[in-house]
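Q: Could you predict the 3D structure of Glutamate-1-semialdehyde 2,1-aminomutase?
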Amino acid sequence: MDRARVAQEYSFESKIAGSAKAHEQAKQVIPGGVTANIKHFAPHPIVMDHASGSRLTDVDGNQYIDYLLSYGAMILGHGHERVKEAVYQQMEQCGSFVFGTPHHLEYKMAQKLVDIFPSMDQVRFTNSGLEATLLAIRLAQAYNDKPKIAKFEGHYHGGYDQVLVSVNPNIDNAGEQAEPNSVAESSGMSDSDLDDTIILPFNDLEATGAILRKRQDEISAVILEPVQSGFVPADESFIKGLRQITDELGIVLIFDEVKTGFRLTVGGAQHLYGIEPDLTALGKVLGGGFPVGALGGKFDLMNLMSPERGGDILTSGGGQKVTDRALFHSGTYNGHPTVLAAGLATIEYLEEDGVMSDLLRKTEQLRHGLETVYHRYGLPMQTVGLGTIFNIILSQETVRNYRDLTEIDLETRKQIDYELLDLGIYTKPGNRYSMSTAHTEQDIQKTIDAHEVAINRLLNQ
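A: Sure. Here are the predicted structure tokens for Glutamate-1-semialdehyde 2,1-aminomutase:
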């Protein structure tokens, strides 16, 4: 490594010395110093102090244009006035943060989602997207009374055993592309988790159909991200074919739109594709910056949760019969009024004339500007994504699934991302870019210019 590179690394590390110190302190009382493994990156994460609009400021006072946006949740940017006003108004009018009883915002948000998503007849709220996908799977298994589910290689649906399978498998262990192996992504998982989760090849309809038909008597549901990782879209022919096959076989089709629900368009990927899944899991943007999840779907499925179908298992001495049991779903904070107020304010703002179209325009402006810079320097690069999410792929080869992503130049991408952190452009190294309504034309130009500086630094090493 040359002297210029050493000086650059030393300069940046000195700029974030406060983050290093804060991380070391956190490690004493928090495993690895982070409250979620995804928040970590080497040599240590940058610890933030405050944020406003499109900007983050760390504990050392360094400012960054934020493209992580809490993994896409902050579509209006940080601290949007409409969201803050809705939250303050809810707390003032209701006089409490939470009731533990039904309240009017539950109906109001549920009706909003039913109006936006034609696939939804009814809605239940959870506290995270993970909980929403977990509930979707339980519901599908209760409906079809079959022991297994199928998910796609490279798709992430939350950090629980049933779906923490073949999210980022080593290719040596992943099996044949047309019939992938089930690979555990965490210690502490049992063999039954792998046996009960069948892995499918994304964007390969022939192979997917063959697996589903061969194992149709075992599979209750297929769950997928219609846009893998938020940026690798399903081929239109693939997703329409998948809908036809699952209909034919009586398998419940679950869309995990936690990332995409309000980011491709207000109605999510299913609106763009013209597909109605049986169940849809939502999260992230839905909470306006607060923890939230929701599951919506067809009446025949959703009604299995109705408490009118059976007794309350948490009431002692209920004496309910096995035949009376409803599918159990509960949670003290489900449908939290403060969270729903923030989420409604967010959705209503996105629905205003010109808001989403302007956000999509700015996303395309950034993507085009970045591609122009990289191509000017002769670097193989493309931006891949739909709507307001994309990722930078250092390859000109078509990317359609997880295995294609293993062939791209991840190391150079990460080197550029570390340079960008020093230049005040924030996303976790290697992660996708999410846009917000708070990003300005100046932010976009500064980001494009920073990429050019970062490229020059690498080329001059």
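Q: Anything worth pointing out?
A: The longest strand covers residues 219-224.
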